[in-house]
Amino acid sequence: MIQNKTNRILFLFLFFLISNAGFSQQNPAPPFWNEIQYFKKLDSAVMPPKGKILMIGSSSFTHWKDAGYYLPGYPLINRGFGGSSLPHLIKYFDDIVTPYKPRQVLIYCGENDLGPNVTADTVVERFKTLFTMIRKQNKKAIITYVSMKPSPSRAHLMDKMKEGNEKIKSWLQNKKRTSFIDVYHKMLDSNGNPIPDIFLEDKLHMNGKGYTIWAKEFAPNLLKN
Fold it and tell me: Which residues of 57-94 are buried (b: 16+ CB within 10 A; e: fewer)?
């Protein structure tokens, strides 16, 4: 009798695990859901004041956790999440842009978009979509695009990056309250190759030397308190 009861309990437990596993596979969390929940947790603890400089984009922002050290005196909110592409910024717009009502929006994204089936023009169109969403919601904010950087591990994409950067820069020139920060050319050596010692071992993300270059280019384009 006891054995039968034990077997029944074990069967129900296994059934519960299998059922929940199936549910999890059928309804997986969307990409970057955990990162967005983390931002919400930060905001629930201390909501940043409105009117700051909002950084959105991919891992080059995510890894720049000490951006305030490189750019003292600038009111920064970093909401970059690694691996993201422009469609992800668009998808989570109401989570990473809307709550903050920023005076300036810094965008570093597009590098992860590129691939065999994604052209520079696709990146440009995606950026335009994000730009329009920001401008519709906040007509006074300065929208700043940071050029895609020439990472050694993505040297095969440099032509696409350069084309996308140039087209976005040209498009922004006809828009009010915008700016374009060109870090691409500052990260090349005299031969036009990515400077090797400003990157980490993965040849994708930057070290302190790389972020020093960025800070020098960023500062003249940022609003202060």
Answer: bbbbbbbbeebeebbeebbbbbbbbeebbbebbebbbe
Find all residues with CB under 8 Å of 79, minimum gap 6, and list them.
39, 54, 55, 56, 61, 96, 100
Mapping DSSP to helix (H, G, I), strand (E, B) and coil, where does residue 11 land?
helix
How far is it, in rounded angstroms, from Cα 161 to Cα 131?
Answer: 19
Residue pair 168/181 in contact by the 8 Å Cβ criterion:
no
Q: At what angle do helices 120-137 and 158-172 cross, to 10 degrees?
A: 40
pLDDT in tens, 93-122: 999 999 999 999 999 999 999 988 999 999
The tokens of 4 are what? 């039968």
The answer to whether residues 87 and 126 touch, using CB atoms and an 8 Å cutoff, is yes
What letter would DSSP give residue 27? S
